[in-house]
Amino acid sequence: MANTRRYGVYRSILGKMGLTQLDVYRYKDHEVIRVRDSSGRVLSLRLPRFRDEMKPEEFEDIVRKLYSEATGASGKRG
Fold first, then answer.
1. What is the model's pTM?
2. pLDDT at 78 over 50
């Protein structure tokens, strides 16, 4: 329950971007988030550090950049 409250804001940011969080893998110094986009593609996004070490705005900027690099998209909402 506590993890839902703690990380719910990050999950909602992904939802606003049209992404569905599937899994989160925590490593020693970073996290990898598996997401599904609206077209059904599943992508692994490697965050440079843990989500709880980032502000929500920073998390959104990083995910936009990683998603754009992974898909070749412009990173715009929509």
1. 0.84
2. no
Cα–Cα distance for residue pair 59/52, rounded to 1 Å = 9
Per domain, the residue ranges of the chain are 2-71
Which three-class secondary structure state does DSSP give residue 9? helix
Token pair of 42, please? 């599943």
Alpha carbons within 13 A on the beta-carbon side of 60: 13
Cβ atoms of 23 and 73 within 8 Å: the answer is no
Distance in angstroms (rounded) separating the CA atoms of residues 21 and 69: 18
Nearest-5° Cα angle at 3, 78 to 9: 25
Output Rg (C-alpha) for the chain, integer angstroms.
12
